[in-house]
Amino acid sequence: SSSSSLAASAQQPPKRRKLLSLDPCPSFRDQDLRRTRLVHADLLAHHVAEHARRRVADATSEYNRSFRSSTELHDRKARLQNDLNKMLYHHRIESGKRKNDWALEVAIARARWQKRKEIWEARRAQRDAAMRAS
User: Fold this and answer.
1) Disordered: where is this region (predicted)?
2) CA angle at residue 94 from 91 to 96, to 5 degrees?
């Protein structure tokens, strides 16, 4: 009898057992919430990346404007310094010329005065000598 039951069970296919999972199965609400969060995270990531790109582009353009302005100011300062140096050079030359011209005029005037003084003193000496002789 036990051999007959073994033979009978060997001929019948084993019963399929459906295992009952104890894991909670996701509901539609959970799936929808997960999908919404993924979409939101994707949109947020793209928005943050686009915002960062925009900020980098704005910062780059502001830097370029500032750099251009700084370069223009530096060039203008260099030109003005160059002009100032030229003006100072010409001023020194003109000042030196005027000083030399003035010194020359003073020397000429002094020489003329000295000559007149010598002539006057010579005439005076002649007059004094003529008065003594008379």
Assistant:
1) 1-23
2) 105
**Contacts of 56 by beta carbon, 8 Å cutoff, 6+ apart:** none
Helices (H) and strands (E) in the chain, counts: 2, 0
pLDDT, tens only, 19-63: 777 777 777 888 888 999 999 999 888 898 999 999 999 999 999
The encoded tokens of residue 63 equal 């830097």
- CA atoms of 51 and 46, how far apart (whole Å): 8
pLDDT at 8 over 60: no
Residue holding tokens 């919404």? 36
Q: How far is CA 33 from the centre of its chain?
A: 50
- Would you state the torsion angle of the CA atoms of residues 64, 66, 68, 70, taken in this order, to the nearest 10 degrees? -150
Count of residues in the chain: 134
Where would I find the H helices in 12-27?
Answer: none
DSSP-derived secondary structure letter, 15 = P
